[in-house]
Amino acid sequence: xxxxxxxxxxxxxxxxxxxRVHLPALxxxxxxxxxMMKLGRVRNIVVVAGAGISxxxxxxxxxxxxxxxxxxxxxxxxxxxxxxxxxxxxxxNPHPFFSLAKELYPGHHRPNYVHYFIRMLHQKGLLLxxxxxxxxxxxxxxxxxxxxxxEAHGSFATAACHLCYTPYPAEExxxxxxNGNVPICTFCAGAVKPNVVVFGEDLxxxxxxxxxxxxxxxxxxxxxxxxxxxxxLKVFLLCGRSSPSPAW
Length: 248
Ligand SMILES: [Zn+2]
Hints:
Elements: H1 33-38, E1 45-49, H2 87-92, H3 95-104, H4 113-123, E2 127-132, H5 138-141, E3 149-151, E4 154-161, E5 167-168, H6 170-178, E6 192-196, H7 213-216, E7 219-223, H8 231-238
Parallel strand pairs: 1-2, 1-7, 2-3
Antiparallel strand pairs: 4-5, 4-6
Bound molecules: zinc ion.
Zinc ion (ZN) binds at residues 161, 163-164, 166, 185, 187-188, 190.
């Protein structure tokens, strides 16, 4: 089994300019993962991806000073920064979230070389699963199939009432939000929300359906995210894998 991790920020695929790919960082680990792949000993790759893989597509991440989402929340008229992503605050006033959602809805951005690299892993039959924390939909757009993808923070592809979870047509919800209206649940009259996960909500069911992925993986690629905030990895560490030990 080959195991490499802690590549962020040294292995910064997707961070900064499209030419900034630090493959030498891979050599921190021995034997070299690419060598192991060449030998055919790597067959099940799990990719864990964060906001950094989409910055090369022009999508701001959350925490980058100056350009990150958190640094630009003043215009949304909210009492405290994370209110915009809090389900209780959404319940009281969905408009700030919808203002943000207008900007985040997929359709304005294209996948970049990182997304296509992961699709290539799939085409070579090496991708066991991709876990992404991104809600930009670029993984699907570049052709990574649904059964290989876990959108851990949900997506804009579906919508539902935030109170009773009654599904609502995603396209109608989008049109309402784009027009500055609040889509209303036909069952309980609660506000309908695109199924992106905000603070205070459970992760999507699909996130829990592949518990065997991490024990089965012989290569874990972590891209575009800080390990300090990686819930996916915490779950992985809890899943009881005994060998080998993680390298971070
Ligand atoms: Zn409802």
